Amino acid sequence: MRKLMTGKQAILETLKEQNIEYIFGNPGTSEGPLIDMLGDYPNFKYIMALQESVAMGMGESYARSTNSTGFVSLHVDSGLANGIALMLDALNTGTPLVVTSANYDSRKINETKTDLAELVRPVTKWAVELDLPDQIPSALRRAFNEANSHPKGPVYVGFTSNALEGMAEMTITRSLDKFDNVLPDPIAIKQASEKLIQSKNPVLILGDRVSDDQANDEAVKFADLIGLPVYQSRGAEVSFPSSHPQYMGIHTLRSQESRDELKNHDLVLAVGMDPFDELFYWGDVILDDHANLIHIDPIYSRVGKSEPTYLGIVSNCKAALSQLNEVIGSQNSNQFSKRKTTTINEVKTRRNAYKTLVESQENWNSTPMSPARMMYEIANSLPKNAIVVDDAISNRGALRNFIKAENRDDLRGVRGQSIGGGIGATMGTQCAFPNQPVFGIIGDGSAMMTIQGLWTAANDNIPCKFIICNNGMYRVLKVNFNIYQKEVLDLDETAGENLLYSNFDTPFNVTEIAKGMGITSERITDPSEISNAIKRATDFKGPYLLDIVIDGSL
């Protein structure tokens, strides 16, 4: 039914129709008309950030945690530009977001007025700026549809003051649910099954879209069925239980071991991922001539995009794996059983070797403590129903070895190439799961990128817990540059520990910074203190920060 209203009212009425609960934002003068109306809409929870990257981090993790579209409200051109880094990450990794901001009066065409849609077009699926109030309902309806359609990603809608303050008769409605679970071609499933049965040594690599498609159980059933080893690529979402006896861990081309591992397999089945998408260039073709790639993904443009593909299947991940299970399950193969035994033994050997390595190191009981010791103590101290947000950066390997994740929402990794998302992601995840403890494990360099986000946690009493891995440096720069010099450039000597401008020579005390923003916090230097500190944090009815000092040596 058409109704006379202002553009700013149309925005809030549309958000209500879209079942938006949280607005993550940083308000400015241009957005004043919209902010002023929020008093008439108490159903919205507006979470105010002091910097736009914090709002983007909250919106991104909230969208992933709720399997919905996040809504973020930024401020004109300067604020919108501050959100671009995490907007780009959302575009590259497929998180549905609707991002908005206001702009000046459209009559200021000869003065300083930025084309906001053009500003963010490279980092969004669709971007538009509106001048008329009656453009708003249909544009926002399209925005939510675009954001949540494959390939999912951020969409931008800007509003001039004319659009916000103008009045028009408008119809507020939403598009109902859209079903996009594409089924695989039966011929493709038959060919894939035959190739998998013939393969002597296949490997399964799973991406985040397996979890997005709720295909975890089918992935486990498939792995159990044919006995192959399983890796996750990036692993920002849990696509496979980390305690499973065939789970090998995270596969990354930055690891020489992972690159060598690929040479052992004659078939790679990649599901719900962009195969071998990595920071460094390791060659135009990754797999050896003897190996074939079968790629299953719900996004048409990603299948066969970069690596030569023996068989590409466009399909919902759950549907494809289910049909593979059905076809292959009719086979009675001793080969599968023998392979499964071999895989389980290999996983046991690797896990025991890692445990022996880290626990026998001289610094297991040293001060500052090793990252492995810190993660070991954290893993043994977290509440059983805790959700972990992983922004541990260069300490992610240790985190994933000790902190187990069985189901999708047990662990959520900050994803993309930016750093600085962890504080916002921890708060956004807590907003999505208000009745579970949420612990963000965050590198100190990443935390300092958006440290003002701690104020938001205090201001809105978001009861998440922040654990800062304080090694006093941008350790990830040293790690990555070491790999680049040694393995990409093949240099005999690397900068290693001596990389310039990567140490925090003037140390910062995150504990005191947190206290200054209203967060209860404590500093930890002894690993034996971690367990009791986590209990205190868990029992505390509000946000809490643990600043854990660790060794940063390579």
Which labels suit this protein?
single chain; 554 residues; alpha/beta; Rossmann fold; six-stranded parallel sheet; 20 strands; 39% helix; globular
Describe this structure as you would to a colleague.
The protein is built from 22 helices and 20 strands. It is an alpha/beta fold. The strands form four sheets. It has a six-stranded parallel beta sheet with strand order 3-2-4-5-7-6.
CATH architecture of the largest domain: 3-Layer(aba) Sandwich
Task: Compute the number of helices.
Answer: 22
Sequence of strands across the biggest β-sheet: 3-2-4-5-7-6
**Beta fraction:** 15-25%
- By CATH, the topology of the largest domain is Rossmann fold
CATH superfamily of the largest domain, by name, is Thiamin diphosphate (ThDP)-binding fold, Pyr/PP domains
Average of the residue pLDDT scores: 93
Name the shape in a single word.
Answer: globular
SSE diagram, text form:
Elements: E1 2-6, H1 7-17, E2 22-25, H2 32-37, E3 45-48, H3 52-66, E4 70-73, H4 76-82, H5 84-93, E5 97-103, H6 116-120, E6 126-130, H7 136-147, E7 154-160, H8 161-165, E8 167-171, H9 186-198, E9 202-206, H10 208-212, H11 216-226, E10 230-233, E11 247-251, H12 256-262, E12 267-271, E13 292-297, E14 311-314, H13 317-328, H14 334-360, H15 371-379, E15 387-391, H16 396-402, E16 411-413, H17 422-432, E17 438-443, H18 444-449, H19 453-459, E18 465-470, H20 475-488, H21 510-516, E19 520-524, H22 530-539, E20 544-549
Parallel strand pairs: 2-3, 2-4, 4-5, 5-7, 6-7, 9-10, 9-12, 10-11, 12-13, 13-14, 15-16, 15-17, 17-18, 18-20, 19-20
Antiparallel strand pairs: 1-8
Helix pairs in contact: 1-7, 3-5, 3-17, 9-13, 11-13, 15-16
